[in-house]
Amino acid sequence: MLLRSPQNALPRCCTRICSNLYSTIPDNSPSLDENEGWLNSLAGSSSIVPELPSTMSDSHKGKRFDYELISKVRDRFHIKAPLVNFTSVNYLKRFNNHIHHQTQNNFIDLRIIQCKSGRGGNGAISFHRDANRRVGPPNGGDGGQGGSVYVQAVEGMNSLAKLKAKYTAGEGSDGGSDQLDGASGKDLLIKVPIGTTVRWCLNPKEVRDIVGREMGKDLSKSLKEVLDTVQVPVQCDAQEQILLHREDYEPGKGWIFKDKTEEYHKQKQWFTEFNEKMMQYDKEVKREEFFQDHFPLFGIDLDNITEKPIRILKGGHGGLGNMHFLTSMIRNPRFAKQGRSGIEAHFLFELKVIADLGLVGLPNAGKSTILNCISNAKPEIGHWEFTTLVPTIGTVMRNAHTGDSFTVADIPGIVKDARLDRGMGLEFLKHIERSKGWIFVVSLENTDPVQDLLTLIGEVGGLEKVNQKKILVVGNKADTDPNTNSTQQKFLSLQEFCLQNEWDSIPISALKKHNIELLVQKMEQLA
Ligand SMILES: Nc1nc2c(ncn2[C@@H]2O[C@H](COP(=O)(O)OP(=O)(O)OP(=O)(O)O)[C@@H](O)[C@H]2O)c(=O)[nH]1
């Protein structure tokens, strides 16, 4: 409880801003005149409701997905978009296959997390008492604000493994007698690695029910088809922000009564007239919630350290205590306002590691060996395929004095038909999505390195996609077959293909550390 003793109480004339609409509520120790002034001011406050844009932004360029506008009801835009945008295919697959999320080095790059902001505390119904007066003026304090949920990207984290499955912020405490305001609920901060994106999503249970139903109707349908065809209705504001659902609130409702019932109060003209004015306050609270309870439809991208935590769910308002309701007509207000509910929502946290360059290759091409010999990273190396199961980032230090360095990400090998989910699929490509340059690593030990390179290009999205990046092609394992010049021939073919595409190429042996300095120089130019 926050005690406002007469010494530290706000001065009587002090008012606080309650909402965007600048409705002012007299603060603790309000006098009858102040209360009446405030209640009367509510009647005229509707005139200052700001104009809201009547159309949604029509620029979808660069957005993650398209949506369809269904209708507009007052300030709400009803849209629909395929289910795939509000869940994670990989998350669902992992769940279906009972693959445990824990992987190599405890690396987890995908989590769906349930978050809940705290409910606001209820206002108190209380009356001053002393030796001379059994029932004095009302002195019930306000409920505390519910706790909010925040996210922040911080340095030093490289996995979502430590995130909890559920975060619930604290509830605001109820107000007390003697004008005591309830304590605010504890806020929650979810710390994530830099490179994490956060998107609003549906409850995975709900998604699994939909998928189960749809597949039950048509057994030939694949998971992908269901996710692409089922449309999810969502409400947005004009700025493409999803309106989050807080328990609804009908103006004029949300009272707590003491001694006398709601029915009793409803029959009294003094109460209905008073409640008429309070409805405007309720509308302002709703309006404020409308402006605050939203989350970007396309999510947020925490690709840098977040200096100030970002609030994703706001706690509920505390309810007003009965000290605010003393007027010349109402001497004994035996009622107070309930606190507003918190908000519950699911968010999809996805880590896309950030590295200047990404290594792309078939399994066993020697990517991890390369990263091992050029950087501080120590990825696992093995002569079997898929030794690398999670992305590893290495920092290549170029100048210890100036601190010049660049980062390189090694991702699991990509196989033919990875797009159709063979091997490890393409799930890990997202980790090099934001890299400036891609290093294709092919093994000169293989029969046809040019064909290997073509396979890789096809799998990662074709030449057009590849040409959006700076490219370097590395022919690794140049040490193999030293007695014939076959590796040399293979490299020359590779080089010719690269020249046609205006890409640089280099033969190396990561195992024997041949040509590594030149490789690092070329990589540095790319980065
Ligand atoms: N002869 C030779 N062998 C190499 C060279 N580079 C790597 N290797 C070997 O090739 C095998 C695979 O190397 P990795 O670095 O694990 O290959 P990777 O591309 O990371 O493999 P995945 O984890 O399956 O993606 C290991 O046995 C390495 O010792 C090289 O330059 N020459």
TrEMBL record:
Q: What is this protein called?
A: Obg family GTPase CgtA
Q: Does the keyword Cell membrane apply?
A: no
Please report the stretch or stretches of sequence annotated as the Obg domain.
105-354
Highest taxon listed in the record's lineage = Eukaryota
Q: Which family does it belong to?
A: Belongs to the TRAFAC class OBG-HflX-like GTPase superfamily. OBG GTPase family.
InterPro entries attached here? G_OBG, GTP-bd, GTP-bd_Obg/CgtA, GTP1_OBG_dom, GTP1_OBG_dom_sf, OBG_GTPase, P-loop_NTPase, Small_GTP-bd
GO terms (BP aspect): mitochondrial large ribosomal subunit assembly
Residue stretches making up the OBG-type G domain: 355-527
An example molecular function term from Gene Ontology annotations: GTP binding
Keywords per UniProt: GTP-binding, Nucleotide-binding
Q: Specify one Pfam family.
A: MMR_HSR1
Q: Which PANTHER family match?
A: DEVELOPMENTALLY REGULATED GTP-BINDING PROTEIN-RELATED, MITOCHONDRIAL RIBOSOME-ASSOCIATED GTPASE 2
Record-level GO cellular component terms:
mitochondrial inner membrane
